[in-house]
């Protein structure tokens, strides 16, 4: 939410949102120093929780160097060395969003090193799967790397941005599958509901994207409207939009749906 | 929510009533996009793999077999299995160029 206006928090609160989780992400440009990441991690763990709390929303973060900035291995390692310092912050849920972007060898190495950090700190893991034509190959590489690493319980891993051609392989490995709703790329609400109809409601959820690109923080509430129109029960809607995220995220002792008392910076 | 067959809660007629106008608009948008390309200068340039990908997807969409969305996504996907030596830029293009497979 660092790239969104405060009014988005107001709209989300109005729509019933009580908590958000914000992955460390690419800023739209490459940071020029590891110190830039340190400042960004402070923003995710200090200022953004305050901004969300003003609207009664509990803010949580995931810490990593996003695969889009992982092509320089030395730089990535410098950033990764700062991760443990932030994993102990009270709003941090784990390591993420890690994964692959263009499926390069260096991205894969950095991903494996992130997995090891998560294993050493017993952290939850949030995984970004690549975009568009790179998603199928990248998801396979990611799942194989997790299996080869073998130190993290699959039930503590969320593989995000699944679509029709990747959801089954994620669920079959015992991991959680996230369907990120976007206006153009990834899943639309209609397709996400199709996927749930075909693959069930166990270990699967939808999430809104609130990044600097074309995205809609209210995508999940709008998808709930789609589910109602398509005849789904209130119990199933609650499970997908609240119960499942709560079950996965509560594996971190830092997750709460109760926002801290608002404070002034 | 899910039946063993993956059937949606609503019947076919109701789903058509709900979704036809939206699907109709999207089909027209694709047709208009292709018409726009035909009207544009540069029509004698080599074929663009992205436009070819859309035409391939349309063939899948109109066939009678199930899992059309999944098959279209696979049709557009990079078919290789090994990591690339270096990232070729940050952005994916939406379909895989056939000559790089």
Structure, described:
The complex is a heterodimer of chains A (265) and B (101). Chain A has helices at residues 6-14, 34-53, 73-80, 83-87, 105-120, 135-149, 167-172, 189-199, 219-229, 234-249; strands at 19-23, 58-63, 92-99, 124-128, 157-160, 176-181, 204-208. Chain A has 265 residues and is of the alpha/beta class. Chain A has a single domain, classed as Metal-dependent hydrolases (TIM Barrel). A 7-stranded parallel sheet of chain A has the order 1-2-3-4-5-6-7. The longest helix of chain A has 20 residues, at 34-53. The radius of gyration of chain A is 17 Å and the shape is globular. The mean pLDDT of chain A is 96. By secondary structure, chain B is mainly α. Among the domains of chain B are: 8-45; 47-78. Chain B is built from 3 helices and no strands. In chain B, helix 2 runs antiparallel to helix 3 (68-76). The longest helix of chain B has 28 residues, at 12-39. The mean pLDDT of chain B is 91. The chains are: A alpha/beta (265), B mainly alpha (101). The interface between A and B is large, with 39 and 36 residues.
Properties at a glance:
heterodimer, A: 265 residues, alpha/beta, TIM Barrel, 7-stranded parallel β-sheet, 15% strand, B: 101 residues, mainly alpha
Structural class of chain B: mainly alpha
Helix content of chain B: 40-55%
Considering DSSP H and I runs of 4 or more, what fraction of the residues of chain A is helical? 40-55%
Largest interface: A-B, 39 and 36 residues
Any idea of the CATH topology of chain A?
TIM Barrel
Q: How many individual β-strands of chain B?
A: 0
Count of individual helical segments of chain B: 3
Report, as a whole number of angstroms, the end-to-end distance of chain A: 18 Å
Count of individual beta strands of chain A: 7
Envelope shape of chain B: flat
Main CATH class of chain A? Alpha Beta
The termini of chain B sit apart by: 39 Å
The profile of the biggest β sheet of chain A is: 7 strands, parallel
CATH architecture of chain A: Alpha-Beta Barrel
Global geometry of chain A: globular
Q: Within the largest sheet of chain A, what's the order of strands?
A: 1-2-3-4-5-6-7
- Series of H and E elements of chain A: HEHEHHEHEHEHEHEHH
- Specify Rg of chain A, calculated over alpha carbons: 17 Å
Helical/strand content category of chain A: alpha/beta
The value of Rg of chain B in angstroms is 18 Å
């Amino acid at each position: 939410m660092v790239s969104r206006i405060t009014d988005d928090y107001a709209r989300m609160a109005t729509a019933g949102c009580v908590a958000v989780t914000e992955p460390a992400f690419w800023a739209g440009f490459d940071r020029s120093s590891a110190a830039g990441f340190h400042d960004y991690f402070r923003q995710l763990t200090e200022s953004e929780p305050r901004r969300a709390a003003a609207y009664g929303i509990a803010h949580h973060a995931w810490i990593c160097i996003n695969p889009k900035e992982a092509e320089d291995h030395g730089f990535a390692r410098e950033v990764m060395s700062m991760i443990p310092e932030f994993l102990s912050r009270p709003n941090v849920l784990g390591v993420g969003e890690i994964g692959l972007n263009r499926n390069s060898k260096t991205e894969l190495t950095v991903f494996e090193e992130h997995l090891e950090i998560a294993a050493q700190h017993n952290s939850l893991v949030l995984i970004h799967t690549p975009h568009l034509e790179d998603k199928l190959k990248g998801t396979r590489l990611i799942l194989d790397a997790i299996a080869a690493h073998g130190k993290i319980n699959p039930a503590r891993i969320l593989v995000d941005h699944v679509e029709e051609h990747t959801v089954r392989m994620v669920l079959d490995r015992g991991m959680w599958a996230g369907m990120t709703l976007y206006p153009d790329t990834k899943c639309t609400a209609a397709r996400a509901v199709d996927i749930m109809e075909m693959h069930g409601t166990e270990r699967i959820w939808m999430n809104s994207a609130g990044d600097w690109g074309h995205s809609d923080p209210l995508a999940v509430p709008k998808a709930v409207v789609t589910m109602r129109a398509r005849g789904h029960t209130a119990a199933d809607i609650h499970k997908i939009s609240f119960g499942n995220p709560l079950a996965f995220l509560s594996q971190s002792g830092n997750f709460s749906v109760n926002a801290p008392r608002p404070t002034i910076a | 929510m899910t039946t063993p067959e993956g059937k949606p809660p609503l019947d076919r007629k109701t789903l058509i009533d709900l979704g036809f106008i939206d699907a109709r608009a999207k089909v027209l948008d694709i047709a208009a996009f292709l018409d726009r390309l035909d009207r544009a200068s540069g029509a004698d340039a080599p074929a663009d793999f992205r436009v070819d990908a859309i035409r391939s997807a349309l063939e899948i969409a109109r066939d009678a077999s199930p899992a059309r969305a999944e098959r279209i996504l696979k049709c557009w996907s990079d078919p290789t299995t090994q990591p690339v030596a270096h990232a070729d830029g940050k952005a994916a293009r939406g379909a895989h160029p056939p000559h790089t497979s």
